[in-house]
Specification:
2 domains; Calycin; disordered N terminus; Nb(III)_bact/plant; iron; mainly beta; binds protoporphyrin IX containing FE; globular; 227 residues; metal-binding; Lipocalin
Length: 227
């Protein structure tokens, strides 16, 4: 028993879900309806079936069983980014001593015209081992017909940035449209990113303008697809 899961279902969706995923697949999942005014609160119990993704609490199914969402057509020019990537890079800046870092990047989708993006990095020591955590960031890459891209990113260092750019031919180039920063954040004012496939690897270069310096290189990295 994986624990009960909760889902908000309208009556029609619940009937369809039961017809598609209930007895026919021989799984023991059951939906108990509880009237919540104009919503039905379904208590789903039983073992999750293959392809089921359940939240860390085990209470909320993040995706209906056995439903792989189809890629939204507007995401096609960004499809090369999809997956989990691991690799290493090098960083520096006129005000920063150069450093090596390890990085994990994940791009996923849920059938809507955006990618879900997260990145985590760690300093690499002289032996190439992962050391203290460095920057992380997360956000959404919104795709539009014709390869136009808008990216919304949040950083724990107090920045929120919106990029605009263009994707095509397994490359995407982005430039900041808006940067906002908290009162205590460093004086970061602009960024430019280029991502592209290098053979089967994902490579990127990142330039920034910060602390009174003009737009120039802060990072570059190359990552391998791990899933
Ligand atoms: C792979 C991602 C990144 C890594 C590994 C990284 C690493 C570093 C390191 C080690 C420093 C110097 C020490 C420090 O001040 O913490 C630094 C400084 C800085 N980074 Fe990054 N960084 C990354 C991404 C970014 C991004 C996306 C931004 C902007 C949104 C950014 C903005 C800055 C700023 C403003 C400084 C301060 C420069 C100064 O003090 O003069 N970094 N970064």
């Amino acid at each position: 028993m994986h624990g009960a899961a909760l889902a908000l279902l309208d009556e029609r969706a619940e009937d369809e879900w039961q017809a598609d995923h209930g007895e026919e697949q021989g799984n023991e999942r059951a939906v108990e309806k509880v009237d919540q005014g104009n919503l039905w609160l379904g208590i789903i119990s039983g073992e999750p079936v293959s392809g089921d993704t359940v939240s860390p609490t085990g209470r909320w199914p993040l995706r209906w069983p056995n439903m792989e969402p189809e890629l939204h057509p507007d995401l096609e020019p960004l499809a090369f980014l999809l997956g989990d990537w691991e690799g290493a890079g090098v960083g520096g800046y006129p005000t920063v001593e150069s450093f090596h870092f390890g990085q994990e990047i994940s791009f996923s989708h849920i059938g809507k015209p955006y990618l879900i993006y997260t990145s985590r990095t760690w300093r690499l020591d002289d032996e190439g081992n992962l050391a203290a955590p460095l920057a992380r960031e997360s956000g959404y890459w919104r795709a539009h017909a014709g390869g136009k891209v808008e990216v919304v990113l949040a950083h724990p260092t107090g920045f929120a940035e919106i990029y605009v750019g263009q994707a095509g031919f397994n490359r995407v180039e982005l430039i900041t449209d808006v940067v906002a920063r908290t009162e205590t954040a460093k004086e970061y004012t602009a960024g430019k990113r280029l991502y592209g496939l290098i053979g089967e690897d994902l490579g990127y270069a990142y330039d920034m303008a910060a602390e009174g310096q003009s737009l120039q290189s802060h990072l570059s990295a190359q990552l391998k697809r791990v899933s």
